[in-house]
Amino acid sequence: MQSLLDPAILFFALGVFAGLVRSNLEMPAAISKFLSIYLLVALGLKGGFALAASGLTPSVASSLGLAVLLAVVVPLVGYAVLRRVLSGFNAAAVAATYGSVSAVTFVTATQYLESQHIAYGGYMAAAMALMESPAIILAVMLANAMRQRQAVEATAPTRLLRVQPLVAMVSAAGPALVGGSAGGAPGTPGPRLSVGKILHESFTDGTQLLLLGAMVIGLLTGDAGKAALQPFSGDLFKGMLCLFLLDMGLSTARNLPAVRKQSPWVLAYAVLGPLMHASLALVLAWMLQVPDGDAVLLMVLAASASYIAVPAVVRYAIPEADPSLYVSLSLGVTFPLNILLGIPLYTQVVRQVWMG
């Protein structure tokens, strides 16, 4: 219970409560955006300062390599499971959501580790950046494959009409039967995006570019930059995070009505899937002897779900998928579970395994 008495977590709970009781409390959009920018810059600087101090050691390389592996395995496994209960496009979108990461969950976890006096590598911010794009790329590739398959199936009846004269008299109905998009929305086929374009959009996206740019600045300036920016990236960080989590609590409460409309099987995945992903990260981190703080953050990253980067890309790249599905699951179910229960749980499990 003591682990839940972290100010940041309590501010998140306050935001959820305010939303549930329909308070008029709200965070102005401009301030919310400013807080997002601040957290990304501060997180990037911390990661850069840590990389400057440690260099690229075998321990750093193993943590970053494991992060990339998880970013590929988690969405593929998620898609295989979700395909049993969802359409192909929805399964790909949700798998991308859970294969990518939540920066706010990660930032909250780093602050929690500091409050528990558990050391972690600041370079884990780079791990978070590396884990954001693979799931999106895989989801778009799966969607493109589904569209190709549906296009082939749609043209098959047309070929049959050409070789069967008796059926030719119904050919006028052919366009109505086989037309429309790959996802079933008539006249609105999804776009085909190249991997290069997805990578370009991912790494030039404002949030990603800001995080990576701040990390490079921290790496280049090292200890001198860390000392100069200590009031900005250190002293202010906790308070800014509390305000941002207050706003995230309000957003979570707004998404809860959409959660009630989802299938029980999908809701079960939103709860149990992250636990399985975190367990996979735990086993791999233990096998590779990753430091305990890094192991906690890898579990957090594997268990988190994106509610910003993935929706921004997937809404355009996979328009056949239902946005209310993957946004409500990530923000209405998985995010609050990780913030309130997941982070303390993962920390406790790693403590017991590493100490045992």
Automatic annotation (TrEMBL):
Domain of life, source organism: Bacteria
Residues spanning the membrane: 6-25, 37-57, 63-82, 89-112, 118-145, 265-288, 295-318, 324-346
InterPro entries from the UniProt entry: Sbt_1 (IPR010293)
Protein's name according to its UniProt entry: Sodium-dependent bicarbonate transport family permease
Keyword vocabulary terms for this entry: Membrane, Transmembrane, Transmembrane helix
